[in-house]
């Protein structure tokens, strides 16, 4: 059962890796809102981390990379960095967790190192979940705030894109993966402590074969006192 949970964690972590790559590549973080004048113009605008895509009626979608990083709003600049960090963390987490599984040939003779690798992998998955959740929630908060801000014109208002929902689902998967691995680590350590305690108690009870046990004899002085 424990091996199955570890395999499940690796599968969820792999899906989480694909999710982080997808949200970093998709240009649908913010999409145009069809309200007010935009309903008549019928144009569609997608804004992602690396490019914007624009399409009008009967015109194919055209995408263009951002001209300058400094021209981006702060939430998109932070999202670029955090999504890259999240991808790197997930990759490292999968490698470390693979070394810590029971079926792995890495550190096969060192159970303690496997337990440490499993705990480290779970912790890195939790960090990757946080690194994914922060930019997605930040961008979503900015979109909702500007949407209900009367000072912002209708043409500049945006709606939540598909990448944000994928990001929330990916963050949940990475969180579940980290919790499973840390749970496995706690089960392993508790079992190891019980086994170590039983082993020490057995060693205390069993006499060593090479040891010599001599019976206790009365001293000669005690014999003289009895004679007197």
Average predicted local confidence, pLDDT? 80
What is the tally of helical segments? 6
CATH-level-2 architecture of the domain at 2-26 and 72-192: Up-down Bundle
Q: Walk across the major sheet and give the strand order.
A: 4-3-2-1-5
CATH class of the domain at 2-26 and 72-192: Mainly Alpha
Share in helix: 55-70%
Which residue ranges are poorly predicted, with pLDDT under 50 across at least 5 consecutive positions? 195-201, 221-225
H/E topology pattern: HEHEEEHHEHH
Q: What is the structural class?
A: alpha+beta
Give the end-to-end Cα distance, rounded to a whole number of Å.
76 Å
Largest sheet: 5 strands, antiparallel
Question: What would the CATH topology of the domain at 2-26 and 72-192 be?
Answer: Butyryl-CoA Dehydrogenase, subunit A, domain 3
- Give the CA-based shape: elongated
Number of strands: 5
What share of the residues does DSSP label as strand, in percent?
5-15%
Using only C-alpha atoms, the radius of gyration works out to: 31 Å
Function: Claudins function as major constituents of the tight junction complexes that regulate the permeability of epithelia.
Subcellular location: Cell junction, Tight junction; Cell membrane
Keywords: Cell junction, Cell membrane, Membrane, Tight junction, Transmembrane, Transmembrane helix
Membrane topology: Multi-pass membrane protein
């Amino acid at each position: 059962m424990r091996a199955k949970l570890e395999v499940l964690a690796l599968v969820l972590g792999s899906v989480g890796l694909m999710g982080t790559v997808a949200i970093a590549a998709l240009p649908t973080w913010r999409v145009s809102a069809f309200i007010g004048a935009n309903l008549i113009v019928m144009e569609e605008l997608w804004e992602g981390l690396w490019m914007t895509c624009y399409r009008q009626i009967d015109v194919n979608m055209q995408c263009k990379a951002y001209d300058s990083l400094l021209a981006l709003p702060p939430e998109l600049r932070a999202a670029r960095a955090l999504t890259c960090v999240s991808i790197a963390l997930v990759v490292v987490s999968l490698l470390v967790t693979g070394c810590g599984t029971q079926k792995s040939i890495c550190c096969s003779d060192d159970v303690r190192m496997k337990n440490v690798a499993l705990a480290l992998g779970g912790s890195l998955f939790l960090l990757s979940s946080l690194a994914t959740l922060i930019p997605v929630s930040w961008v979503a908060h900015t979109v909702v705030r500007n949407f209900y801000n009367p000072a912002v014109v209708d043409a500049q208002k945006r709606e939540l894109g598909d990448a944000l929902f994928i990001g929330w689902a990916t963050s949940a998967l990475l969180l579940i993966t980290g919790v499973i691995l840390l749970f496995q680590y706690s089960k392993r350590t508790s079992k190891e402590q019980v086994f170590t305690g039983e082993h020490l108690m057995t060693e205390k009870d069993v006499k060593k074969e090479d040891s010599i046990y001599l019976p206790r004899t009365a001293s000669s002085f005690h014999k003289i006192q009895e004679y007197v």
